[in-house]
Amino acid sequence: MAHAFASLETAGPVAVWLIVLTFIFVECAFIFGLFLPGDSLLFAAGVVLATHNSELSAWALSGVALIVAVVGNQVGYYIGRHTGTRVLARKDGKVLNRQNLQRAGEFLDRRGFWAVVLARWIPWIRTLAPMIAGAARMDLRRFTLATTIGAIAWVPTLVLAGYYGAGILRQLPWLETAAIVVSVAFFLGGTGWGIWRYRQEMAKPIDEAGEDLEHVSHPHAG
């Protein structure tokens, strides 16, 4: 996998699209996404597309990735609705532990609708919020509206910031190259670290002592 993504810097727009859409869907839908660097990926994609002068592609990717992020959260919602959150917590887990799940649940309980919107900008809550909302039976229409607003504010902002930010640097070729290298390296490093952390967390036994979080959030919370 690392070898495949090592070509991101020289990848054409089609390869960038495939990588971005796959990673965004996984990050927004499944617990594995908790460990993926979605923010840096979106920014890096914009930077790489800028090297190809693909402005239309950057805007189009923003729109399609936005839709994929919403669909991914819908999948996460239904997973939480049907499985709850009990199986997520791990004994001695660094990230997937009962305390973090409780914190995410309390955040959703306090903020309700706006918690789902804001969750797009909080990496680990971004993945957990849809599952917790589903387990708590949050109204599906409200959840869909909230996650759509969040995606609109999240995806285009990062992709286009990377694209136009790299465009400004074109007058300084060495700095543009450095921006590409740093963006891609951060993405690759984050992905490798995420895979390692995920394997470490999943190797730990499920925390059977904890209760599910269905009681934490309320479907009518606003």
TrEMBL record:
It is a multi-pass membrane protein. Keywords: Cell membrane, Membrane, Transmembrane, Transmembrane helix. One of its GO terms (cellular component) is plasma membrane. It comes from the Bacteria. It is found in: Cell membrane. The chain crosses the membrane at residues 12-36, 56-80, 143-166, 178-196. The keyword Cell membrane applies. Residues 36-163 form the VTT domain. Its main location: membrane. Belongs to the DedA family. This is Membrane-associated protein. It comes from Lentzea xinjiangensis.
